[in-house]
Each structure stands twice: as structure tokens, then as C-alpha cells.
Amino acid sequence: DIQMTQSPSTLSASVGDRVTITCRASQSISSSLAWYQQKPGKPPNVLIYKASSLQSGVPSRFSGSGSGTEFTLTISSLQPDDFATFYCQQYNSYPLTFGQGTRLEIK
Amino acid sequence: EVQLVESGGGLVQPGGSLRLSCAASGFTFSSSWMYWVRQAPGQGLEWVANINRDGSVEHYVDSVKGRFTISRDNAKNSLDLQMNSLRAEDTAIYYCARGVDNSAYFDYWGQGTLVTVSS
After folding, report:
1. For residue B68, is pLDDT > 90?
2. What is the DSSP string of A59-83?
3. Potential cystine with A36: which of A44, A80, B71, B72 (Cβ 3.0-4.6 Å)?
4. What residues form DSSP beta bridges with A70?
5. A71 touching B, CB under 8 A?
6. Which chain A residues are within 8 Å of B97, Cβ to Cβ?
7. A46 in Cβ contact with B108 (< 8 Å)
8. Which of B 12-51 lie inside 8 A of A, CB atoms?
9. Does the distance separating the beta carbons of B106 and A44 come in below 8 Å?
10. Model pLDDT for residues B100-115, shown as the tens digit of each residue
């Protein structure tokens, strides 16, 4: 199974900050990676797919990069609505696996 | 508007069974791979199972193989998850999700249904 490891687990930041979350795969997954944002009591919402493609309707302050085993999600200027938990997910092979999550909190 | 609405969750004793359903609308259901993803209370996301467009191919996470069965009815635009031999560790919110084209990531999710396995 491919293990997905996110860092950090928790991130404290302020409105306007630029933040980066990292996701590492235990083996190469090419560009088969998606990023999701989840707010409390809600289902996840896809932000990025194919490592760097922005999902329709998602603000351009979100961006993704990487390939192989190392990936990043960057938020260029944090907005109040962005504070949530973020997950990466590999879809290169079964079983489909998620990272453990990164909680982004207000400093 | 794409909508996925889960139902069937509840409290069940260990060893019991439950059948979850997901009613889909707003898109051509028969053209989409469909998925079940779960989230234990306060925990992360775990893919559970998926099924291809015509129901001929299924995949499961190892922890549910032999206990859970995914199925679909394209005439009724519905997705099911039959869960047998339930364990405490199956306690979670179960989400129905739509896959994107031939890629196994998810662009629409239901609101989820809570399954609690406890005596």
C-alpha cells in the first residue's frame, strides 16, 4: 500500500500569510494526487487534482505542485474562510489512500 | 445540480448488518464510477470501496473485504453498501462520492450518514 504522509499536522497562521503543506508518498505516484479541504461537519471539497490542476470554482490563491513522491499545496494569501483541515489523496493505485490531514488554524 | 444523499446509517450491535444507500441526481449516474469513503469520529478519511459504471468491477479496502458489498442500480440512480459482520472500528461517517472520469478522485460528496457499532 502507498502511505501518504502530510506535514505539518497542525499549522498556525494569520490572514494574509502564505502557507505551504507538504505531502509525501511512500513510492512514486506520478501526478495522481488530489488535495481536499474539509470544514467541521462538512464533507471534503476538492481543490487540486493531477497534482497541480485547479478544480473549477476554487480560488486561484490555491495552487499545487510536485510529482513522483513529493507534493505541496500552497495558499498564497490566507483568507478567513480558508481555516480548515486539508488532506492529500493518491489515486495512482489501489488501495486509494489519504494523508492524515493538516489542520490549519488561526494564529 | 449534482446531489448525493446518503441514508441508512444508525446504531448497530457488533456482528450486525446495515445497508447504506446513496441517491444520486443532477448528472448521468451511469457514466460515473462511484465510491464510499468513511471518516471515523475526529479522524481522517479512508476509502472503503468503489464500483465501475456498469457494476462489473468492484474494489475494496482490505479491512472490509468479505464483509462489505458495494452495488449500484443505474435505473434508479442509486448506490448501496451492504455491511455485514460489523465491528466497532467500522464506526464512522460514510460518504458517497462521485469519481471524475477515469481518475479515482472525487468531485462531489454527499453529506454523509453516521454508522455507530456498539453494544
Report:
1. yes
2. -TTEEEEEETTEEEEEESS--GGG-
3. A44
4. A24, A67
5. no
6. 43
7. no
8. 44-47, 50
9. yes
10. 988 899 999 999 999 9
